[in-house]
Amino acid sequence: MNSSVPPLSAGAAAFVRRAHGLYIGGAFVPAADGRTFATYDPSTAAHLADVPYAGPADVDAAVAAARSALDGAWGALPALVRSRLLVRLAELVEENAAELAEIEALDGGKPVSVNEAMDLPAAIEHFRYYSGWPTKIEGATIPVYLPDTLCYTRKEPVGVCAQIIPWNYPLMMAAWKLAPALAAGCTVVLKPAEQTPLSALRLAELVEEAGFPPGTVNVLTGDGTTGAALVDHDGVDKIAFTGSTEVGREIAARAGARLKRVTLELGGKNPNIVLADADLDAAVAGAFDGIYFNSGQTCIAASRLYVHRSRYEEMVGRLAEAAAKAEVGPALDRATRFGPLVSAEQYDRVRGYLRDGVAAGATLRAGEVPAESPEGGYYVRPALFTDITPGMRITREEIFGPVLVAAPFDETDEAVALANDTPYGLAAGVWTRSLAQAHTLAARLRSGMVYLNSWASGDPAAPFGGVKASGIGREMGQANLDAYLETKTVWTNLAP
Ligand code: NAP
Ligand code: MG
Questions:
Q1: How many helices (H) and strands (E) does the chain have?
Q2: Which residues 6+ apart lie within 8 Å of 377 measured at CB?
Q3: What is the structure's pLDDT at 496?
Q4: Rounded Cα distance, 455 and 449, in Å
């Protein structure tokens, strides 16, 4: 591994060193019981900072602050002012993008260049996109059959929202969650993942600077128990969660028992199909980035590759060659394209799958089973398995690491059957020069998103989400705005 890590900018260094507080009711405060936990740099495994560990009293305080903002200053703001505040937040994130990209790289291990090119612009544009919505949220006048009656609908914010996010795109996920909720007029308690609490705390400072009324946005750093306390809290009206299917199921059950609104973005084991007529250069590049981007720690990772037998050996050979050359290294090194995995736990998990694949008889065409104890950071090289069977764990389970499994197919129907043979249904891809084939398969693949001759295209206006065990509801676009709104029907007797 090559490494030439430049020093951290003064701004990012000062932020990381600062005493960190929970953001509750417009103030940065320690946890009520004074507890903290550590966050680490996955590129080196070194201790980075201690942050407050929010317990039940902090959850109570944050939910109360969110409720009072909803019933008070925030709830009273005209839509146009909500819009301006979101515009200001987008500007502030943009002004501080370089620092945020470094904080993100340090805390989560994603290459700083990737944060600058992808995560930061995506977060900024998300706030910008939703800043346009507050002034366009309209009810309707309903043409009812009753005489002398006026019936209309109002779109009202769902209320206090608990937003629980993962570590793979910490800042971008915060933006994905906050922007639609705030556009709809909701208030929020955001809980970042324990592995990556820092960028959410820096974002809280920018929320403060933008001038949102106290309590509109609250940030609680903590772990799964903090998240669970939020889910169970009587003062929370809606839960928006991104993370594992396992935790998503639990949240859905708990939310269901309390009839809380819930949206879930969960895992995937996403199939990528390459037909015989595909542009192989494009397919190789798309499949490579599709799985290895962010070291495979992506819900829409293109983790299962099905290639027509006539192109299979060539495609797999080219992918293995590219994987062998991948620049894996520390996140702050500008030469790095693929950073470490986020944590020791994730390293062990991915290592376990690599061992399992080898033991099950699959062929490791690229990559290796990494050492039991990582040296320095949690690095795993891009790996590619061939000779897989549909029943292997590496074929069925979401690995969330840089591990691709590949198999050939002969008939298109066989490829569709293989692709749909999964409990998940988040994303799927098709590579072909035939328009008819592309759109026919787009209709036959059971997933929330289909990429044709591309992978992972996205835009704040375009719905994002999954079917089956990949989740409930959609992020982005008007679909996610609607997930933060309730419809109230108002009946008026005009001839009393
Ligand atoms: P996870 O446990 O689902 O964590 C996601 C978020 O939920 C974190 O903020 C987590 O808090 C919180 N959480 C955990 N248990 C909770 C509970 N019972 N109630 C409420 N909130 C809870 O995911 P993980 O353990 O970090 O990662 C494990 C696997 O999940 C990965 O290997 C991957 O397969 C999948 N994953 C998927 C996505 C995605 O984008 N769909 C993202 C991340 C992970 P703490 O982390 O602070 O404990
Ligand atoms: Mg960390």
A1: 17, 20
A2: 41, 42, 43, 44, 45, 109, 330, 340
A3: 80
A4: 10
The predicted-structure confidence for 51-60, as pLDDT tens digits, reads as follows: 999 999 999 9
Neighbours of ion ligand 2 (CB under 5 A): 39-40, 107, 195
**pLDDT of 1 higher than 60:** no
Q: Read off φ and ψ for residue 243, nearest 5 degrees.
A: 165, -150
Q: Which of 164, 189, 221 to mutate for ligand 1's pocket (most ligand atoms within 8 Å of CB)?
A: 164
Candidates 312, 285, 308, 271; CA nearest to 398 is 271
- Residue 300 is predicted with a pLDDT of 98
Does residue 114 carry a pLDDT above 70? yes
Residue 468, exposed/middle/buried by CB under 10 A (0-12, 13-18, 19+)? middle
CATH of 271-459, one of 3.10.20.30, 3.40.640.10, 1.10.10.10, 3.40.309.10: 3.40.309.10
Instruction: Say how many CA atoms lie within 13 Å of 354 toward its Cβ.
Output: 24
Q: And the tokens for 174? A: 């915060």
Does an H or E element contain 437, and which?
A: helix 435-444
Residue 299: active-site member: yes
pLDDT value of position 225: 98
* Separation CA 219–CA 190 (nearest Å): 5
- Section 336-345 average pLDDT: 98
**Angle ∠(405,419,281) on CA atoms, nearest 5:** 60
pLDDT band at 363 (very low <50, low <70, confident <90, very high): very high
161 is catalytic: no
Q: What residue ranges do the domains of the chain occupy? A: 10-266+471-488, 271-459
Domain 10-266+471-488's class?
alpha beta
